[in-house]
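Hello again,

I reread your note about wanting to compare the complex against the isolated chains. To keep things tidy I'm splitting this into two emails, and this first one only covers the full assembly. Below are the input lines as submitted, including protein chains and any nucleic acid or small-molecule components. They are followed by the predicted structure of everything together. The single-chain runs will come separately.
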Amino acid sequence: MLDSPCIVLDRVGRRFEAKHALEQVTATIRPGEFVAIIGKSGAGKTTLLRCLACSIPVSKGSIRFGDQDLAALHGSALRLHRARVGMIYQQFNLVRRLRVLDNVLIGRLPHLTGWRRWAALGRYFDASQHEVALRCLDHVGLLDRVWQRADTLSGGEQQRVAIAKILAQETQVILADEPVASLDVMNGALIMETLQRIAASAGITVIANLHHVEYARRYADRVLGLRNGHLMFDGSPVGLTEEVVTDLFGDVPTDAPGPTPVTVGEAIWASS
Amino acid sequence: MGQLLTKPLANLHVGPAPQAPPRPSTLGRNLLSMLVLAVVLGWAAQVIELRPLELLRDLGNIGTFLKGYLNPSFAHVRLYAWQCVITVCIALWGTVMAIVIAVPLGLLGAHNLAPHPLLYHAARRVMDLFRAVNEFVFALMFVTAVGLGPFAGMLALGIHTGGVLGKLLSETIEAIDPGQVEGVTAVGAPRLHIIGFGVVPQILPNFLSYILLRFESDIRSASVIGMVGGGGIGFYLWDTIRAFNDREAATVILLIVGMVICVDILSARIRRAVI
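Full-complex prediction:
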């Protein structure tokens, strides 16, 4: 299950109306790599992640996971792709009124077959699903919070629940959109270490948008630097010299558009 | 420099007191709107033949009414009490039927969930129709279709309340947090599961509260729907008042008031317990 695919971005472009959010981005991400994408707001980081997650299509070029071209995904194949790719969000995106355990069990939904799939609609999960969920919660150190409602947890704890959820999902790739931007330094470091450990020990590819260069330097194997939708840097964190950082973050005015939010309807029905 | 100024402001703003630009006058507009309102109200009073003095002239009649109403008869109280039970049952099943109608219509009629704009508009228009037609009109129609009795009343309440609850449900769904739904969609969950885990937990408390609110309102409607043949206590209310049987009518009204108060108290308790 956990054989992460090779991710190949081939001259990827994405436009929002007349504006180019991404242009000519080419990169090959090897299985198990911890990749940080850095750049200013509006540089195209979130757009790139959304394209990888298949929540929006690319306008030009192609993205391939293994030998699967993402543009060809529809319906159940798209759901399968989503099951293989775990998402971590800046705002955690847990279902706030559900218990911690239920939120982790949501990660099991794509793996349920037959009657178990229907039973899940009544919040019934069998013992083996519960075991997986509890193992994942234990791994992030939140076993004692299992019966609490998600919205009673602190931000750092919620992000750890989100990590437990994608562990339960048994993903091959983790896409993290500003995973620590809403957290304090201590919790941020804890989350980054957890992600790093998952990447290193389970061989899961992690691609994380970060606007703090420091986090990228400390935790990533490889850094992609975006500016105005163009890939300006691709290399190990060692190569992130002052000049490179100034080049990426320097006060070049940007007119790139911000990310357009995905609506609930798009999320649910766009897969058909 | 006025002594009203506290010290920090005195330091911040020195020099002469500032002059605000002249305040635009609204007197003319206010007078005009009051005049228009007075004219409309006066005309409406003519239309409805509003003559308060007749109330005074007929004070004697009202006195005889009051004598009966202040002296309720308990000769048929068991019959009336049983009719109140029937009334509660009509409202109960009417509300259940309304929920069954409201859930699919509400899901389709929420613009952030609707699979297709056509279905969205269809659901919205059906809900508009159900809400626009009063439950009494529905009751008259169902009485001709399924005959006199509580069943017709329940159908009428169910349809009308279904439209109202569906509308409330779709508005609730439109206000949910899309991030929480995205968190479920992103794991590759099937569609029904996205709704069950991402949408339902967010809307459930509000929806339950709306259901209780409509149940209270259904009790009030059910208590008069018997007037048009929809079963329940309403028929006896109609019958006793029309026959000038004031003492009996008083009993019926007392029972209805008691029933409505009991249901309101009960539903307030349930609401507190659930939310």
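For quick reference: Chain A touches chain B at residues 53, 55, 78-87, 89, 91-98, 102, 106-107, 109-110, 117, 120-121, 162, 165-166, 169, 261-265, 267-269, 271-272 (CB under 8 Å).

B.
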